Amino acid sequence: MTLTSALHIASSGLGAAALKTGVTSQNIANADRPGFTRKAVGTVTTASGQVKAGRIDRSVDAMLTRLDRTGKSRLAAHTTVAEGISAYTNHLGQPTDATSPAAHVEKLRSALVTLSGFPDQEAAQLQVVSMAKAAATNLRSLSGTLDTVAREVDLNLRYDVTAVNGAMQELAQLNRRVGIPADPLDENRRADRMAELVDTVAEYMDIQTVTTGEGVVNLYTGSGVELVVRDRVFDVAYDGAAGTLRAGAVDITLGLPGRGVTGGTLAGLLELNNRVVPGFRDQLDGMAAALVQGFETANPIAPGGTGLFTDAGGVFSAALQPGLAARIAVNAALDPDLGGDPALLQSGGMAGVPASDPTRIDAMVQTFSQVVSVDTGGLGTTLTLADLAPTLVGSQQALRANADGAAITSRTASETVSAARANFEGVNIDDEMQKLLLVQQSYAANAKVLTTVTNMLDTLLAAV
Among 5, 34, 105, 415, which has the minimal tally of Cβ within 10 Å of its Cβ? Predict the structure, then answer.
């Protein structure tokens, strides 16, 4: 080996050590930054013995990355549904809670039983009206809570769609820069950012990616609908009136066979918007309809024929059942706060009815044991009025329990995979410091070779 060769080899060693020092230092500095992936410099030895720095590799495992994104997408969907249901069912209560519809209906039944024994007592009459008002208020309040949940779901759908489109636009911009000569560290920073953007989209919807050999990341929904192809973006759009989601011109609404989204917050929000909230609303409307129609049939108050409960003052109409839980009210003719007379519960407004006659009150009591004839929103067709309220509460709380269970299961699975991915991609400070010490030793050795060869050359030149 000549002295010139030794100089070149030592010089290349210094260059490789300098690059490794920069990459290792960057790893240490960004150890706690979300989305940062550990980097490593590969080296090769040329035929002349020089050290040449190879490419800077990101520590990425494609399988772990895919499983982590799938797990987070599934977790986001289940958590969104569970939180949306809880926002309503926390107000609903359990069947045995004093504030639940079941408790209010039972209190009304007990008040009517008491009134049946003392049909002419004003206190007993007032108690029935009071319990009826409490039951109606409870249903209206629950309907209002559902309205609030629905508005929040709609708003979050719009926010999430905006966030998805923003991430996809940035990903397309980064795709445009692929192939443009750049510093290796800049290329890796761009790759990190692209992976971070894909991770972001994965929390909103289930996705899959295809990365080309040159590094372009193409993004698709889990079912294969195009989202980002090189620098072309197929914007996601939400139609609030129809409850649909589109990617470009393709309908990807939850539940659509073969194309619908199945994961992420968008899937969870669509589940709430299109299925859960409407289902709960139908059941509340069915409960309200059973009360209005049942008592109207048992004891119509002359002259209008409305019963203990009304549809905003009117008689029951099956065609107007949607939204009835928000309109149900106690008959103003019976409410002393509105100038009404609770004694009409006993007489029905009919002249000549003896004050001690409990016939109409007994008919209202019997209403609780009769099978309801209105649409109950899927709760069943053989339920009595007394069974309907606890069945409603139990069914809705069971749905919440199932959603909570699915969220817990998904979280356990997701956190396990996420931890494995973080261990593989993340930075271990101790390991990086050891690498830095080795690089320092290598740098010092190459510097010593350069100094020695330089001194030798100086000695030779001085001898000439």
Answer: 34
